[in-house]
């Protein structure tokens, strides 16, 4: 039900929206497909991508795995006039803000702290230690909510996705509000 779920919903229901596929050093979860959900790479390959300037932004997320947005596909999507969606963390958003200030920054907020915790526990793919780290990151991200142009509360995936896509098609009113 988190950010990934909204991105998955957009992928399925809004084929006109171009979704960035990040590179990550995290191991795939069951059902995740290389090249579709992420480009799963090892540390050496991630180093190479960074060194060669192929990433628009990159970050160590949850103090563990590395994630980054391949630059060229984003540029190509924008050049083709497609609405482009990057599902990234706070550190990444700050970097993109630096190089693409015209982008719209949307904060996807959990309906409540309790809901966030139960989603994470319910998924059952993290150890208790990993969950602790993820919750710490979430607390930091919530504190930075004001830096974003818009906040969408993710209480209903379809509604959150619809709201998100509507902003991408016509971001002007949201940026002004
Ligand atoms: P997960 O491991 O659950 O798929 O993602 C963990 C976190 O990494 C999420 O907060 C997600 O937004 C973030 N993330 C995924 N891809 C990228 C990326 O390309 N860059 C950055 N900075 N964060 C990312």
UniProtKB/TrEMBL annotation:
Leading EC class: transferase
UniProt keywords, alphabetically: ATP-binding, Kinase, Nucleotide-binding, Transferase
Reaction(s) this enzyme catalyzes, per UniProt: GMP + ATP = GDP + ADP
Gene Ontology molecular functions: kinase activity
EC number: 2.7.4.8
Top-rank taxon, per record: Bacteria
Residues annotated as domain Guanylate kinase-like: 1-169
Family: Belongs to the guanylate kinase family.
Record's function text: Essential for recycling GMP and indirectly, cGMP.
Protein name, per record: Guanylate kinase
Gene from which the chain derives: gmk
């Amino acid at each position: 039900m988190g950010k990934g779920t909204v991105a998955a919903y957009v992928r399925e229901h809004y084929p006109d929206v171009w979704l960035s596929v990040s590179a990550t050093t995290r191991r795939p979860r069951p059902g995740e497909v290389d090249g579709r959900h992420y480009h799963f790479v090892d540390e050496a390959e991630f180093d190479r991508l960074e060194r060669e300037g192929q990433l628009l932004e990159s970050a160590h997320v949850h103090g563990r795995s590395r994630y980054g947005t391949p630059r060229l596909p984003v540029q190509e999507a924008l050049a083709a006039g497609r609405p482009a969606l990057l599902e990234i963390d706070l550190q990444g958003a700050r970097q993109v803000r630096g190089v693409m200030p015209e982008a719209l920054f949307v904060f996807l907020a959990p309906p409540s702290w309790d809901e966030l915790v139960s989603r994470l526990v319910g998924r059952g793919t993290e150890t208790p230690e990993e969950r602790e780290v993820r919750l710490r990151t979430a607390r930091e991200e919530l504190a930075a909510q004001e830096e974003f142009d818009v906040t969408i509360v993710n209480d209903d995936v379809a509604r959150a996705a619809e709201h998100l896509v509507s902003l991408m098609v016509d971001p002007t009113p949201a940026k002004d509000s």
